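If I may wish for something, please walk me through the protein I am sending here so I can picture the backbone:
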Amino acid sequence: MLRFLVLTSLAALALADRVPEPRYIEDSLERVVGGDVAQPNSWPWQISLQYKSGSSYRHTCGGTLIAKDWVMTAAHCVDRSRTWRVVIGEHDLNSNSGREQIMTVKTVHIHQLWDTYNVANGFDIALMHLTSEATLNAYAQLGSLPPNGQILPHNNLCYITGWGLTSTGGSISSQLKQAYLPMVDHKTCTALAGGAAPFPTPWCVVVVEQRADATVTLAAL
């Protein structure tokens, strides 16, 4: 059985061909849920996107710092009207290390083809313009995006990072985690989708989930 989803951690793909050597054993990872705790601040372009809830803020998604005052994230994370803030240099959501920079958001720009009610259409991407510029240092750096139009090769080294679920149906991790995902070419992606490409987007990764139904998950970005 094939199950399709839109992979939302754009921080991983943005740096797919310029990442450090693996620090952990990849074959211990069975799916996107889980992964390994990353070394603190080893992904300095990773941000925590948070929304205001009462008198406090709650983490909801990750993202990538692509310019001193611009963040790239997933459209589905920001397609509701909320008061947002971005935390740069974050590692543990429950602990303040003193390295964090907290930035408010001026405007949100969602891809014009994103459809909240048709996630399978893809284009799950948004840009957030910050009200001020981040200070770049060892804990806050810009992500290196692939050139416009570049299609990453089959089996290209790619990581997904974020504060995702620690287990299926579980709670989110308080510490930043990372997981390795293989990039697959369009031909392979189409074959796994039963002969029809699942999304009109150029990048596809495969996550094999060790479940009774032998599910293969395709994620298009």
Q: What stands out?
A: Helices lie at 10-14, 186-192.
